């Protein structure tokens, strides 16, 4: 049925430069209906009127070929109350994200029921949408703009142990920001990043709850901050988020495939920070987590690497999460070799530090994301606190300093080398029901059941 409606003049290809711009403004012939994507995160590449109440919207990616994460976000107003038909046509991709709606652009609800039919290929979807004079946002996920993330991080910086700084600028000059959460002046580090891929909103939501747990006043978080610093880059790709990109930054580069050559300012900025906390002392950087979204909740970890620090951390961490949520299915893909230019692969291989890609499902219930991300953060803190304390030259000098107060003949000998810190073996259940999946690659369907 769609072939008839989408004449060849309406169907562009992603190479059509007109379609690369994500924002468009549309007004119906009689002026009744207006549809726009001219807002941060908006994406509607073209809109045309088919008849009085039917509109064809083209959704196209910023570059081609591209990962099939077809992001759409537009806002409709209608002078009169009516139900309109929107024919969504995807160029270079297919329907992936179930619609979410909002009346204010801030509070959202799922609206799968808007979809009245879809073609087998998923390239064409029909929505029937009740509209009126009050604006109605329709998007693939909740809009989580850089402004909203900034509001959240600004709230956090009111806490005395949270600071924020700019670590670089994006291609288009937007700030790439990093939070530091610590109450130690000689901390070990965990490094967290999110939103390399703009539509992966559930990953960003997971990151927010994870970080909230690290900044909370819980007993474990207070102990954690006395020894560790969490460094957090909530939005690695602010340009892509702003323009409603499906995948890439403003140069059309998939940032999570840029971790070999570091051709982009965003990945360069994060690498510099990671190298800094790695350089500042042996085994200071204890964990790297990169938050993403895919079809189901899953942890991606690099192929087993005996030299990685801290040894055995991921297995213990995932077991702890599974023990904590017995009815939640912790899925792990430990055979994730497909792409060698990801953040996780680089941190694992080059820094020798445990690196995890933490994926939340596109449609995972948001309360579940909050519960599991908070629990995962608490289990991470508990396990890292079980690591033996670092005996770095810096820390040693603190001990020496206090001794030296009483003696001018301070012992100048260097300490014998200490063995690499290892997590103590865990008394708790080592074989919980973690689901191992294989052959899943980032951004592709995780066929796991
Ligand atoms: Zn991703």
Throw out a few tags for this protein.
2 domains; Aminopeptidase; 20 strands; 449 residues; 11 helices; 9-stranded mixed sheet; alpha/beta; Immunoglobulin-like; 6-stranded antiparallel sheet
Give a short synopsis of this structure.
The protein has 449 residues and is an alpha/beta fold.
Tertiary shape: elongated
CATH architecture of the largest domain: 3-Layer(aba) Sandwich
| Terminal-residue CA separation | 33 Å
State the helicity in percent bands. Answer: 25-40%
Number of domains: 2
Strand count, sense and barrel status of the largest sheet are: 9 strands, mixed
Radius of gyration: 24 Å
Note poorly predicted spans.
Answer: 1-15, 396-418, 438-449
Full CATH superfamily name of the largest domain: Zn peptidases
Percent range for β-strand residues: 15-25%
What structural class do the secondary elements suggest? Answer: alpha/beta
Spatial strand arrangement across the major sheet: 12-13-15-14-16-19-17-18-20
């Amino acid at each position: 049925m769609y072939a008839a409606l989408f004449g060849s003049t309406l169907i562009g290809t992603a190479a059509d430069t007109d379609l690369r711009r994500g924002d468009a403004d549309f007004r119906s012939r009689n002026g009744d209906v207006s549809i726009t994507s001219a807002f941060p995160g908006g994406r509607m590449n073209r809109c045309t009127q088919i008849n009085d109440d039917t509109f064809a919207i083209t959704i196209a990616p910023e570059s081609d070929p591209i990962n099939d994460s077809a992001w759409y976000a537009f806002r409709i107003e209608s002078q009169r109350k009516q139900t309109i038909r929107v024919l969504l046509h995807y160029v270079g991709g297919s329907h992936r994200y179930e619609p979410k709606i909002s009346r204010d652009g801030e509070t959202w609800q799922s609206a799968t029921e808007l979809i009245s039919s879809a073609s087998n290929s998923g390239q064409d979807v029909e929505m029937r949408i009740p509209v009126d004079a009050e604006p109605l946002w329709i998007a693939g996920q909740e809009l989580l703009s850089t402004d909203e993330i900034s509001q959240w991080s600004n709230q956090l910086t009111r806490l005395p142990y949270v600071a924020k700084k700019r670590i670089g600028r994006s291609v288009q000059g937007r700030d790439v920001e990093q939070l530091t959460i610590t109450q130690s002046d000689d901390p070990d580090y965990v490094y967290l990043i999110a939103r390399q891929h703009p539509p992966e909103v559930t990953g960003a939501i997971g990151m927010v709850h994870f970080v909230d747990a690290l900044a909370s006043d819980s007993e474990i978080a207070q102990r954690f901050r006395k020894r560790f610093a969490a460094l957090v880059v909530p939005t690695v790709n602010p340009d892509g988020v702003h323009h409603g990109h499906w995948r890439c930054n403003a140069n059309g580069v998939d940032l999570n495939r840029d971790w070999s050559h570091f051709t982009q300012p965003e990945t360069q900025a994060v690498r510099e920070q990671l190298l800094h906390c790695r350089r500042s002392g042996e085994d200071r950087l204890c964990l790297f987590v990169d938050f993403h979204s895919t079809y189901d909740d899953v942890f991606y970890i690099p192929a087993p690497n005996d030299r990685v620090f801290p040894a055995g951390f991921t297995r213990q961490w995932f077991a702890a999460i599974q023990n904590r949520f017995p009815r939640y299915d912790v899925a792990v893909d430990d055979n994730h070799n497909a792409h060698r230019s990801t953040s996780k692969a680089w941190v694992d291989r080059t820094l020798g530090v445990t690196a995890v890609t933490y994926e939340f499902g596109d449609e995972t219930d948001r309360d579940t994301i909050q519960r599991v991300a908070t629990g995962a953060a608490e289990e991470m803190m508990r396990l890292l606190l079980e690591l033996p304390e670092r005996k770095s030259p810096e820390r040693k000098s603190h001990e020496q300093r206090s001794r030296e107060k009483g003696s001018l003949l301070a012992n100048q000998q260097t300490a014998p080398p200490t063995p690499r810190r290892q997590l103590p073996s865990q008394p708790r259940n080592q074989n919980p029901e973690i689901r191992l999946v294989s052959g899943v690659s980032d951004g592709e369907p995780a066929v796991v059941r």
